[in-house]
Design brief:
The structure is a homodimer. Chain A is of the alpha/beta class. Chain A contains 12 helices and 12 strands. Chain A binds a DNA duplex through helix 2 and helix 4.
DNA sequence: TCAATCAATTTAAACGTTTTCGTATTATTT
DNA sequence: AAATAATACGAAAACGTTTAAATTGATTGA
């Protein structure tokens, strides 16, 4: 590897001059600068990130925290899309992305925070994780610039997909299609689930709908079996709903299976709506009517925010950034 | 950050002794070692990876190269699953994962190889990329231990999903279900596509089938529209196939749409089979009969291989590791 | 003309490790 | 008891940078 020393010898200047020339400092003569840069390029010089990091305490590297346990992180379309966009946005700004989470069963493993310190991440983005995990809290409460996605801590920046407005819009669309008996099979155990559920209640109240309790059923995210079972319950009701909302698109297909199994058609006999807007749903029949979350913007905002926390810590607000989604109109919700 | 110096002061020994104690060198007394380690733990010491890397030229960090252009990398179920498993396997062995590819439009961006040198990756895994890209070649031809997935270079280790056997098994299954008129809408422009196609020809020959030319149609991967169009062509034939193979599961649903649009049912009127085994396909109707590639093993083997190239360069063979998939029997292929 | 200012460059220390080689102490052999 | 070997530890250099402070030489102002 060619180092600054090599360049300095080649140019007959000191290493300091080379460093300053390459970093475009003010106090180096224009001609010297030009010469050094030319030689550097020609010799194929590239900085050594480790040395730079050691000296500056900056790595230009961001840590990303993803849930490992159930492999719902990377392999979940929503989060994968967020990560993809996050990554692009970070790279545009010269930051690389490294995964934080190391498997928990490793002997002598580091905590998330320890791992971050070890690697010297300039900032951290927490994408999808159990937010009650003590290790996550430790990380969030550290002095490392942190941004969370879809979860609100009191001392970090959060990029939030607007689940409240999302549910509101989706419900209004469905209402607009003439539906009055709307059931909601909702996710559980996350603040996102809570927000959607309360937005559901609020919106049906606004719309003056009277939704019976048995129309509201809990079901895990991305669990087609559970959604199937919940759907069956709804179909067994004497007065069955005309439209069913699901925790997410994936689960929605579990519900569709239950519906079809009874010889009912979507959307002719009963309508369904998903949530997320996973891409494959646009290519299947029925094309899911769903709330498409703006994964691209979510990832991008997260990267931008954490980088500005790193680079302008004073002027960057600790705030909650809300990213709106939009109703994607497929053909799973019919007109009544 | 607490450093070795802090520990050395606290213990009244030299930094060298601390380093050796923590790295479990032979020439440090048992009691001293114990004491140093205890103090280190108690002071919350963790090594500084940058300093360590600077000194040892080892980062314990692997670079992963993913295609960016069409975002078919991270957000593609197959590759996401491979990455997920890759990541777990690497982390079990103490290696972290960082993305290599930085966006190509950046001014003054580094080539892949430059990026790897800059970050000092100990090894590289190339997952999904245009293998003809000069930058990829430069990387592959460098002295950095490299493993490719699903592509064979002459000088690197390759982890290959067994597309030949996969196609063979899938065809045999379909044949076993009584199908004789089997069409293949195949992917293009990759060695994977080539291998599958030649395995298709070989297998139909073995089976003594006579497949007319018009049963073989090209179509891009994951392109539902193209698959739809190709399917229509097949359905227009005077003697239509009884089963259609698709480049991948995603595309297969495009084909299913075309079939259903004509009032035909899968698998009663016509059968279809996918390739990949993306998870959602098991939750949809029809459940795709497909060749499920072993993404878990692919990722794991890749991580293991690159790490052994790093840690035992002498004894590690440059070889091709083949990972078999298996026919996943859904209900999209019917009995004839 | 002499000090003062300024621009351009260098010196040297520092970042936190690892590692070679040397030294001091103790144990073993003769 | 002396020589030798083994054991435990330390000194110092090195890795490739950055940066504060010092230095040099030229230019300016009075």
């Amino acid at each position: 590897m060619v180092s600054m020393k090599d360049i300095s010898s080649a140019c007959g200047v000191s290493v300091a001059t080379v460093s300053k020339a390459l970093n475009n400092h003010e106090d180096i003569g224009a001609e010297t600068k030009r010469r050094i840069r030319e030689v550097a390029k020609q010799m194929g010089y590239f900085p050594n990130s480790a040395a730079k990091a050691l000296k500056t305490n900056r790595t230009q590297n961001l840590g990303v925290l993803f849930e490992e346990d159930d492999h719902s992180g990377l392999t979940h379309d929503y989060f994968a899309c967020v990560l993809d966009s996050l990554k692009s946005a970070a790279e545009e700004r010269g930051y690389d992305i490294t995964f934080i989470n190391s498997c928990r069963t490793r002997p002598n493993r580091m905590s998330f925070l320890e791992h971050c310190r070890y690697r010297g991440f300039d900032g951290v983005i927490i994408v999808c994780v159990n937010f009650l995990d003590p290790e996550v809290l430790e990380l969030v409460n550290s002095d490392i610039p942190t941004v969370t996605i879809d979860h609100l801590f009191n001392n970090t920046c959060a990029i939030m997909s607007d689940n409240v407005k999302g549910m509101h819009d989706l419900l209004n669309y469905i209402y607009g299609m003439g539906h009055r008996r709307i059931a909601y099979i909702h996710g559980t155990e996350s603040s996102v689930a809570q927000r959607r559920l309360s937005s559901f209640y609020k919106t049906v109240a606004e719309l003056g709908l009277d939704i019976p309790d048995e129309y509201i059923l809990p079901s895990a995210y991305r669990d087609t079996k559970a959604a199937y079972a919940a759907t069956e319950k709804l179909l067994d009701l004497k007065e069955r709903p005309t439209c069913i909302l699901y925790p997410d698109d994936f689960a929605c297909y579990g519900g569709i299976n239950a519906i079809r199994e009874r010889g009912l058609r979507v959307p002719d006999d009963i309508s369904v709506a998903g949530f997320d807007g996973i891409r494959i749903a646009r290519h299947l029949e029925p094309k899911l009517t769903t709330l498409k979350q703006d994964t691209n913007l979510l990832g991008r905002r997260a990267a931008e925010k954490v980088i500005s926390l790193i680079e302008q810590p004073k002027t960057t607000l600790i705030e909650q950034i809300v990213v709106e989604g939009e109703v994607y109109v497929g053909n799973s919700v019919g007109k009544i």
